[in-house]
Design a protein that fits this description.
Elements (H helix, E strand, L loop, with lengths): L6 E4 L7 H6 L1 H7 L3 E4 L3 E3 L9 E7 L5 H14 L3 E6 L3 E3 L5 H9 L17 E6 L3 H7 L2 E5 L6 E5 L2 E4 L9 H5 L4 H9 L3 E5 L11 E2 L2 E6 L5 H16 L5 E4 L8 H12 L4 E4 L17 E2 L2 H11 L5 H12 L5 H16 L1 H17 L6 H14 L14 H15 L7 H12 L7 H30 L20 H14 L4 E2 L10 H8 L5 H14 L5 E3 L2 E3 L2 H14 L9 H22 L10 H14 L5 H31 L3 E5 L20 H9 L9 H6 L1 H16 L1 H6 L1 E4 L1 E3 L6 E8 L2 E8 L20 E3 L9 E3 L5 E2 L4 E3 L9 E5 L1
Helix pairs in contact: 10-18, 11-20, 12-14, 12-17, 13-14, 13-17, 14-16, 15-16, 17-22, 19-21, 19-24, 22-23, 24-27
Length: 842
Amino acid sequence: MNIPASTYRIQFRNGMTFDRAAALVPYLKRLGISDLYASPIFTATSDSTHGYDVTNAGEIEPSIGGREGFERMVSALKSAGLGLIIDIVPNHMAASLENPWWRDVIENGERSRYARHFDIDWSRRLTLPFLGDPFDEALEKGDIVIKRDPQTGKPALACYESLYPLAPESWQGREDDVLQLREARDIAELHARQPYELTCWRDAASNLSYRRFFEITGLVGVRVEDKTVFDDTHRLILELVHSGAVNGLRVDHVDGLADPKAYLARLREEAGPECWITVEKILGKGEHLPEDWPISGTTGYEFIAALSDVLVDNDKVAALRQAYDQVVGETVNLTAELRDAKLLMVDRNFEGEFTTLLRIAVTIARAENVAAEEAAIRDALRELLVAFPVYRTYGTDSGLTEADNALLQKVIARLRMDQHAPHPGALNFLRDILSGTLSPAVADQAATFRTRFQQLTGPLMAKSVEDTLFFRQNMDLALNEVGAEPLPRTFSIHRFHREMQTRLERQPDALSSTSTHDTKRGEDARARLYALTEAPENWAECVERWRKINQHKVALLDDGVAPRAADTWMLYQALAGVWPPDLQPQDAAELSALEARFEAFVEKALREAKLRTDWADSNDAYENAVLDYARHLLSPDNQEFLTDFTTALQPFIRAGLINSLTQAVIKLTAPGVPDIYQGSETLNFSLVDPDNRREPDFAGLEQLLIADDPLAAPTEESWRSGQLKQHVTTHLLHLRQQKPALFREGDYLPLEATGSREENVLAFARADGDDALIVIAPRLAFDEHHDSLVHIARWADTQILLPERLAGQRYRDIFSGDVISPGERINLSSFEGGACVVLVKE
């Protein structure tokens, strides 16, 4: 199999084309990358900024170079010896008139060749929830008229720029008469004869006839479980794999599929044994990928979560939470907060999906003569969805797997003991549907329920945690990251070691990510914010002081003050994470550039929290008050605050830079395939998307790489510019290519530190036969770098103990070039250079 030594993720569109990517190949080669990892490359909606809204799976996006540009890029990659990984989107396509398959379904309804390509409930008309008002109101306003479509020449229902095709039988033979229709009643009658109905976007959550991606009505679910649909959507993908242009596939949102295992088995069979396949999959605490999936692993969200065990100060995190609770004004019960977020999703955002499940369950109950009222079944279904602890199970038409059935039984047992326990009979009935123990007469309906239930638990979890709770509870924003839950837990370096050993055993060829296009903040912003747990009192004092300085910008509204104290905690922390290391309070131009990015983040954060404003029902007064406060923070006129903020932030900046380097070294040496998200080889202080999808300064990155290597004598400037991180990265990337077996198959050995700084050192080894690598990196060293960046050589009384298989050997420090021959232990005083040490056996 073509296992990458490393990948480099590039976001296409927004100015990035195949030819521009081809021009970056020499830089990627010099950096040490083995494979380019491309965001979706297939034709998407004309205004797409990401490519996940595919409109034509059989065509490569013309605006980024089309097939010819793609081939030029592939040629450049191959000439340099680099491979190509592409991101594919089997779960959904754009519900857009630009999508010819979707357009054909709109026009021809259930008779369309593509009617079964999409996950549509054909027991009713196809709902198109893209109107600004209900149909009758839009029609009365004159927003809906009959026009000839200039592209097809056929009559269409026109709403502003959108032209919805008419079913042929509704106009053929009377074309001129249809085009002359002006009366609202006549247009309404024509609309009633269509296989679709135009509805208001606000009704989508409760009234939708097709499965969507999460709660995005512009993305319609695709039925890749059907072989014809699979073939049609994967023809070009497989052509690119078989031609040798593409070495691997990243499968987007695998949990959305009806049967992920069956899909992956078919994909593996069609793509062949040499194609490297990973899946976007969020694993819950203690959860692992099913062992029978024919893939190399996940795209690495769980790796991000594991790093917090190294970089969070477990002894002090409780003090940070206490300080946060004091600002909020109460002790935050995060378990209750998570439940509230899930209930909101069930009752409002996914009301339609829930209602569909309930309808199926009630129908089965009647057929099976189950003695449970609809209200009891509703309550049991609601509580079961809220209590579900992972993104989904992987049952099929015959029922659940043994592992998933055990999980279901555990969830139900806990739910029975919960204060919100539903009617036991109704809960048992739902258990029987999911486990497949009902009579054969209802097997098909039970299978449909099982599939729909499994396709709902994932979006429900994601929207509740990632897109609600993460924006409501902000004790430490670094912990609010995809793949993690902001629930209280113990952070332990020993658990990190165990997880890396498990990673080596279960998915050694999975991606190891620290930043992606979906992470809530860039890896270096997260690394800096981890340091808040090392100095909680310091941080709390800063926030209190800054709130007093800016108190005059707090507004009193009818629904309370804005921003609230909890909002200010979030604002100061988000600003601390994104603040450029060398930004000066007097730099008006840079402050203005940062303000534009920060303002977009604040608006999104407020709406995602869904407390006093929302995407569907914005509270302009509240939003404007908080945005005004945020703008004031970055106003050049606010020098008292800016000067204080910049000064107070310096120790956190330095601690963050140390964390950043440790984080990068771990990713590049621990089990897994390291992924470098565009620009993150230096410093990535981005906020949530779309900020994290901005194109980095590639020309600047190239200049940093060809400059003098800073590893021998790191300077403050090389730390702050990201050059040191970049050069550490390139040294380790090249080492990975030189020693593929060591990094892919080598044992992961935790190493013990002893001495006064033993809690401040992470050490582990990779060993494969006679080959070995030793990694030593600092952690929790906040108190070491108030004035300068830490050198672990200062910790002269701290040592790393070596097991017999590593002791008595000669090792070369790949950063400094120095050679050492330790016995049974390594003295940290042996190293004169930077913060991290990587030793390779000579």
